[in-house]
Amino acid sequence: MTGAISPWHLLIVVLIFLLFFGSKRMPDAARSLGRSMRIFKTEVSQMQNEGKTGEAAPEAQAQPVQPPAQLPPAQPVQQPAPQPNDQQKA
Fold it and tell me: How far does the chain reach from its first CA to its final CA, in angstroms?
């Protein structure tokens, strides 16, 4: 054995996944894996482009940061007066 992965090894791994997850979940799992890989690929390429140009991403430069709006000073809340009870507790 040379330590390389043979087609038989891949077939066994696929069969094990099929037994564990079932045939109905496999397409959904493959689809979500493909989406994740596509997102990862675009993020890596954006980071490489950003590193080459030395600039921040255009989305980050598009909107300037604005300071938070000043709120009016807080007003104290008046507590309601206690109501007289007809029945007093002993």
Answer: 91
The amino acid at 74: A
Q: For residue 80, give both structure tokens.
A: 């309601």
Got the DSSP string for the chain?
A: --SPPPHHHHHHHHHHHHHHHHHHHHHHHHHHHHHHHHHHHHHHHHHHHHHHHT---HHHHHS---PPPPPPPPPPPPPPPPPPPSS---
Residue 89: Cβ within 10 Å count: 4
4 CA to centre of own chain:
36
pLDDT, tens digit, for every residue of 6-49?
889 989 988 898 888 887 888 888 899 899 999 999 999 999 99
Distance of CA 25 to the CA centre of its chain: 22
